């Protein structure tokens, strides 16, 4: 008996199940979280060049990564830092707790001030670096690249302190560049000129307040602004309106990354691997091995990793050094291998660029001691340059140089210049 070729109707239930399955697959392919500023950023995103920043949809670039960089250096650049992990730490023992877990002396950090710090595990290996804001005698905000809530809560046992993550509740913006002060003044933030480098203060905004600090990640004149998520869009609009005549432009991470490299600043899990992420033992780094030894205050009370750090110093067990390099030529050497005498591998470049401000080919690299420490001569990098659809291997001489690669007086000028 011949079988019918007629297709049976597919039920609506089956169609719904298929659609749900496809939607679920798309759900995992899509970066799900948007910051409080997302509607404004999406409206400006001409390149549609996104990346995943701690689960948030963040832009590599918005309109042109080259011009976005120059917006930082010649006008005012606005960058959404809301995905940065933020912890509120408060209570009678907040100062003592933070002094115990971080490298720097928190008792010297006065209310209304910010400092750059880092924290280690018990073996002295760096867990992360970040900024600590002292909002009042008993209240702090700790900002970092990675999430550390379980570790912070465990470390808080025995202290009269409350630790809460406020990443979603607090929106953040970085306003950086020579006209950044003028934008804030024109936006009506009275007396903002009184903020010196690493100062912070609260200013009225939209029926509430916005915290403004004279900080940033660009090595330029700049500020960071923190506001409750429900007042984020009004803050964005206020800055954009005030900055029209000052050349304000929103930017993505690629431009910011170039500026931070010129400033010689490092990024966790880019220039060094944090202790919680390191799988191989030789990837762990102590503060002295990534240029953060200056933070260690041996006059303060005990802190995480103190014994291990002192032991490594005394017994010369420090194995690596993070250095700035100037490389001949103009081809960026990102992720290039560093050699001694063109033959022995001694390290790796983690970030590199041709610097428009320094007019030099610059890089940050991690080297195995004694190279980069007591032995700094005859260093080379291996670069593969694409030329007419074929890679050409180039060996370029590298010279260890001081960081930052550029130093702009306007960053610390007091009062800030009115560009």
UniProtKB/TrEMBL annotation:
Alphabetized Pfam families for the sequence: GCV_T (PF01571), GCV_T_C (PF08669)
Gene3D superfamilies for this protein: Probable tRNA modification gtpase trme, domain 1 (3.30.1360.120)
Residue ranges of every copy of the Aminomethyltransferase C-terminal domain listed in the record: 322-407
Example GO biological process: methylation
List of residues binding substrate: 224
EC code: 2.1.2.10
UniProt keyword annotations, A-Z: Methyltransferase, Transferase
Superkingdom, natural source: Bacteria
GCVT N-terminal domain residues: 66-300
Annotated GO CC locations: cytosol
Any GO MF annotation of the entry: methyltransferase activity
InterPro entries per the UniProt record, alphabetical: GcvT/YgfZ/DmdA, GcvT/YgfZ_C, GcvT_C, GCVT_N, TrmE/GcvT-like
Protein name, as recorded: Aminomethyltransferase
Protein species of origin: Mesorhizobium sangaii
Taxonomic path: Bacteria, Pseudomonadati, Pseudomonadota, Alphaproteobacteria, Hyphomicrobiales
